[in-house]
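Comment thread on ticket #2218

A.B. wrote:
> Attaching the input chain for the structure job we discussed in standup.
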Amino acid sequence: MERRQSLVDAAWRCAAVRGFRDLTVDDVCIEANASKGAFYGYFKQKHDLLLALLEDDAAQLDRELERITHDSSSGVERVRRFARVMLARGDDPAQVQVHADLWAELLTDDAVRVRLAEATQRRRELVRSWIEEAVGSGELVAIPANALSSILLALTDGLMLHGALDPGGFRWRNIRRAIDVMLAGIEAV
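C.D. wrote:
> Ran it. Output below, let me know if you need it in another format.
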């Protein structure tokens, strides 16, 4: 399993430079210092590597969300930390490239669409529970929790893709500040 993760890690590094669509199995094998036989021992084709990147990304984010849940007692603070974590992903060229490729693939590939939808649903449910908790405790004004969690997820995905489209179009620190101001606007006074 360590060798498989080495190939996945190498694919992230290659994707940061070339994007997933343009990287080759040879690129990944060279980066991982592995043979093609080793690659094909874990992945039937390059497409399986894309699914592995999706799963690796989902697992990393799930671990981060679990940390947020355990380290923050405030629902509002959890939502803020979630927004920061999601926006930080926009600074990672590999994340941006792979997400752009995943979004393109979900239009034509059922496996990608199903796995991405499952990961998004898990995140939406968790963030929704944080929002419901914050509304229930009086930290946030009454707001539709599922709608706000959907907006936050879509906002972070959209910002990541817009950042890739026009890297000079905005500054991430200003985006973070704007989101903090928006969240402050729904805090109960």
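A.B. wrote:
> Thanks. Noting for the ticket: The longest helix spans residues 110-136.
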